[in-house]
Amino acid sequence: MTDTLAAKAAQLQERLLNKAGKKEANSPADNEETSFQLKATRLTLTQLELYDYDYDNFNRQMSKNLKQAPHFFNQTPVVITLDKIRNTDKKVDFIELTQMCQEYGVFPIAVRGGTEEMQLSALVAGLPALPNQGSSKSSNDDATDKAQESAAPKEEMRPSKIIHRPVRSGQQIYAQGCDLILLGPVSTGAEVLSDGNIHIYAPLRGRALAGIRGNKDTHIFCQQLEAELVSIAGHYKVSDDLQGTHWGQSIHARLDGQHLKISGLTS
């Protein structure tokens, strides 16, 4: 099985290289303008943690999540993580999985983790394997990263954006480069977003997304949790996940590693 997948992956790569070679042979050498340039970048992407793949179950769960957070599933790129799959011997049809995700507005772009056979199967479906997040870097890579971080200008946070009125269904409030403070309720179907923290001194029934530019140190505080979705730096929980111990209570949401933690606020 693994040999077959490896052969398909090799054939795919060979066809791409052959096409590139033919284009190069038929084009002028030095007279053309540069068509593109490759540059490194860092993106914060949503992860789809796959535990098991069954077409019907996956379809039902995607449909339920879409109804709870329709705007979140809108051409959203995701990385499928395979480390937590329960049965690694079970074949995952990545072509079928990718097609279904795209029908719901979620676009897988790569996989991470899993067995070699899983990664080869994903590659045949057009999903390359990313290195694990815990993979080690060389000292040169670390030095380069630190130099880039020190050279990059620090973005100054602006004064907090304060909204005194209720945020009604269909409305969206975005606090760019600052914290967001809301003194009124956030209705079902409304969405509040911030590059920084979000403070809601009223019920949260819509969607709250903090750290939307990748800041994992942001927090969400709300007086009464009845949300459709809570998200920090792309890590989110929808209503079904939130309806537990702290539903209807004052809460504090934060990231603990890669996991979104919800805890109660004591008066």
Structural class: alpha/beta
The amount of beta strand, in percent, is: 25-35%
| Number of structural units classed as domains | 2
- Report helical residue fraction: 25-40%
User: Unreliable runs, pLDDT <50, ≥5 residues?
Assistant: 135-154
Write down how many β-strands occur, each being a DSSP E stretch of 2 or more residues: 15
What composes the largest sheet?
6 strands, mixed
Structure write-up:
The protein has six helices and 15 strands. By secondary structure, it is α/β, with parallel strands linked by helices. It has two domains: 103 residues, Alpha-Beta Plaits; 104 residues, Pectate Lyase C-like (3 Solenoid), CATH 2.160.20. The strands form three sheets. Strands 5-7-9-11-14-15 form a six-stranded mixed beta sheet, with no helix packed on it. Strand 14 and strand 15 form a beta hairpin. It is globular, with a radius of gyration of 22 Å.
Which secondary structure elements does this structure contain, and how are they paired or packed?
Elements: H1 2-26, E1 46-49, H2 55-68, E2 76-81, H3 94-103, E3 106-112, H4 116-124, E4 129-130, H5 139-151, E5 161-163, E6 172-175, E7 180-182, E8 191-194, E9 198-204, E10 207-210, E11 220-225, E12 229-232, E13 235-238, H6 239-242, E14 251-256, E15 259-264
Parallel strand pairs: 1-2, 2-3, 3-4, 5-7, 6-8, 7-9, 8-10, 9-11, 10-12
Antiparallel strand pairs: 11-14, 12-13, 14-15
